Q: What sequence folds into this?
């Protein structure tokens, strides 16, 4: 990151985008532009070289329907992208290939909260330990505000996949059926949409005589904004698609050496 901060574009100027703007300015970065086709306060409605106004990195929190087009347009323009939009998994590989082809930085994560970053690691470890006992059954519950469009959340999907991969006999995850017993191969995942809940994720394992839970609650969407801005600082100057784990290892846990471009 340069001493003068990063010239940032914010794509998606809802509550999350506005939180990112506040955190970015507090961190010494400048806002080149805000882009959103619907938000009243956004400076521009679409992405172009003109509307990007010289931004070097864009932070994209939009909608599942528009994320792929937004990210690809930014990468085509040579602007590195931090994306936190969930629900567009099928198009993710296209964006990653484009970033590598164009030599432009790109990182996506379902959740930029630093607490959830730790949760990802702990759940993976716990799933392996409980699987080794052969006595515990896993489950997952998440809750978000009633405006969230995808379910389960991207964070829940990542957690669920991690548990499935480490639990013998589990082959998939999804909602429990309403009219019959749960298939033993299914990891049951439930979700709640109500009010203004910023985000809550619960992973649990239950046995005959005991139970174990891990819970992360976000009390303010600012925590996601802080993580996204840190990711933008880390991504500047990188010239390829990067993984969220690379960001975590470099910036949060400090376990990687180098961290190539």
A:
């Amino acid at each position: 990151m340069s001493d003068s901060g990063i010239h940032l574009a914010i794509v998606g100027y809802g509550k999350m985008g506005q939180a990112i703007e506040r955190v970015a300015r507090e961190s010494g970065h400048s806002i080149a532009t805000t882009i959103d086709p619907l938000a009243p306060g956004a400076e521009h409605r679409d992405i172009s070289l003109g509307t990007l106004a010289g931004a070097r990195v864009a932070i994209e929190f939009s909608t599942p329907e528009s994320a792929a087009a937004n990210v690809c347009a930014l990468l085509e323009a040579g602007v590195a992208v931090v994306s936190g939009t969930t629900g567009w998994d099928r198009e993710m590989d296209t964006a990653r290939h484009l970033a590598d082809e164009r030599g432009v930085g790109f990182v996506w994560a379902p959740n930029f909260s630093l607490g959830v970053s730790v949760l990802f690691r702990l759940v993976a470890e716990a799933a392996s330990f409980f699987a080794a006992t052969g006595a515990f059954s896993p489950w997952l519950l998440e809750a978000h505000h009633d405006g969230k469009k995808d379910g389960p959340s991207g964070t829940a999907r990542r957690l669920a996949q991690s548990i499935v991969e480490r639990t013998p006999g589990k082959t998939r995850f999804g909602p429990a059926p309403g009219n019959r017993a749960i298939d033993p191969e299914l990891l049951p995942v439930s979700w709640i949409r109500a009010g203004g809940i910023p985000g809550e994720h619960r992973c649990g394992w239950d046995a005959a005589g005991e139970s174990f839970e891990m819970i992360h609650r976000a009390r303010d969407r600012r925590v996601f904004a802080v993580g996204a801005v840190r990711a933008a600082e880390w991504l500047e100057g990188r010239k390829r698609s990067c993984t969220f784990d690379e960001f975590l290892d470099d910036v949060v846990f400090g376990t990687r050496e180098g961290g190539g471009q």
